[in-house]
Amino acid sequence: FPGLADVSISQDIPVEGEITVPVGSHSPDEDYSTLDEPVKDTIMRDLKAVGKKFVHVMYPRKSSALLRDWDLWGPLVLCVSLALMLQGGSADSKDDGGPQFAEVFVIIWFGAVVITLNSKLLGGTISFFQSLCVLGYCVLPLTVAMLVCRLVLLAGAGTISFIIRLIVVGAMFAWSTL
């Protein structure tokens, strides 16, 4: 390297910091690293965490530990499944429903980001990703309502189908506002 020939390193600059590994008693939890665990264990751990959060959304109870362990897998699954169900369009239709998927996906995530930024600007103590996690899991009642409405529509469209879907949407709305 021709430009480094005239760079001199002074010998009197003290080295700071501790580079040795401390010797002493420590718990096995300190040695635990998820980089060394099998992929199956990682996936099962994440699926159990998402399942616990789904149960918590269905039966809310106060838990600050649940809020600390945020994840975006559950909100992603909920958002994608809701967008896929809303995509609609039949096989013989010229409208393939492509824009609806993108619109639902973008509206949910952009809305969650705007609400999160608003809470941070107003002095909220919740972290950015914790807020996204909570708002994403709040889409569960909408997704359940959409799933039930799609199943009712498979049975046929009519006045009774409309009334059942109206009751389902009303029940999910009441559930989400509890």
From TrEMBL:
Membrane protein topology class: Multi-pass membrane protein
Chief localization: Golgi
Domain of life of the native organism: Eukaryota
Domain Yip1 residue range list: 57-177
GO CC, alphabetical: Golgi membrane; trans-Golgi network
Keywords: Membrane, Transmembrane, Transmembrane helix
Listed transmembrane segments: 72-89, 101-119, 125-144, 151-175
InterPro entries: Yip1/4-like, Yip1_dom
Biological process annotations from GO: endoplasmic reticulum to Golgi vesicle-mediated transport
Subcellular localization, as worded in the UniProt entry: Golgi apparatus membrane; Membrane
Family, as annotated: Belongs to the YIP1 family.
Stated name of the protein: Protein YIPF
Gene assigned in the entry: Yipf6
